[in-house]
Design brief:
Blueprint lengths: L5 H5 L15 E8 L2 E16 L2 E12 L3 H4 L3 E9 L5 E10 L2 E10 L4 E4 L2 E4 L10 H7 L9 E6 L2 E17 L2 E12 L10 E7 L6 E8 L2 E11 L1
Antiparallel strand pairs: 1-2, 1-14, 2-3, 3-4, 4-5, 5-6, 6-7, 7-8, 9-10, 10-11, 11-12, 12-13, 13-14
């Protein structure tokens, strides 16, 4: 069954050089589970602003269930993310997750100078470039995917840090509602070779162009595949 990590984890390891985003850019996705339309989702770059001394992009992810799934397993997620305009590392994140009976509201503030993150009222020590799942969407749109092939990254998941190895396959042709793209496929693996929760597997497909759109995300769960496909882009 679909667990509470469903949408956050989908985006937990999405990697996508150049300055590829602009204010107003919105990526729309169709989401299906076991071949049945499940939800609509989007990523929008809302505005550029200043937090303290940091210039940031404010990005918002939303996902809302439709059709039969809305009655069986209603989803209404909103994640607001602020990333540094130079490093594309997260400065703060506000999450509101509602998936079935699971509800979560969480705020994360990153202190890069002292290498810790404040998660609600708890403090977590982090590495220099530790990220959240959601910021990876944009960090790897700015940085070369190939440079991270077979390397490690650190991210926050469930109030702790996890170390991941990255496997990359290149030049795959992917068809989605938004069109046909030549993509690099990124597949994360736990550093200790253990399985992800519910034996999940993840493949993320990024377009091999300046924008590096996350074109398709395929998450294998215990009872089937959750697939998000890029439907359209508005700039």
């Amino acid at each position: 069954m679909i667990k509470k990590y469903f949408f956050p984890f989908c985006f937990a390891l999405i990697f996508g050089n150049s300055l590829p985003i602009s204010v107003g850019e919105t990526l729309f996705y169709n989401a299906s589970f076991r071949g049945i339309h499940a939800a609509n989702a989007s990523l929008k770059t809302i505005k550029k602003e200043v937090i303290g001394i940091d210039s940031v992009y404010h990005i918002q992810f939303t996902a809302k269930s439709e059709g039969p799934l809305n009655y069986i397993f209603p989803i209404d997620d909103e994640i607001n993310l602020w990333i540094d305009t130079k490093t594309f590392l997260p400065i703060k994140i506000h999450e509101k997750i509602s998936e079935g009976k699971f509800k979560r509201s969480r705020k994360i503030h990153f202190d890069r100078k002292n290498n810790f993150a404040l998660i609600n009222n708890d403090t977590l020590l982090i590495k220099k470039n530790t990220q959240s799942p959601f910021s990876l969407f944009y960090f790897f749109r700015k940085n070369s995917i190939e440079e991270f092939k077979n390397k490690e990254i650190s991210l926050i998941q469930n109030n702790k840090t996890v170390e991941l190895n990255l496997k990359v396959r290149e030049n795959e042709i992917i068809n989605v509602p938004a069109g046909q793209y030549t993509c690099s496929i990124v597949s994360p693996e736990k550093k200790n070779n253990k399985n992800f929760k519910n034996k999940a597997e993840l493949d993320v497909m990024f377009s091999n162009d300046l924008k590096k759109y996350p074109v398709k995300i395929r998450l294998k769960l215990k009872y089937g595949y959750l697939v998000l496909e890029l439907d359209k882009v508005i700039n």
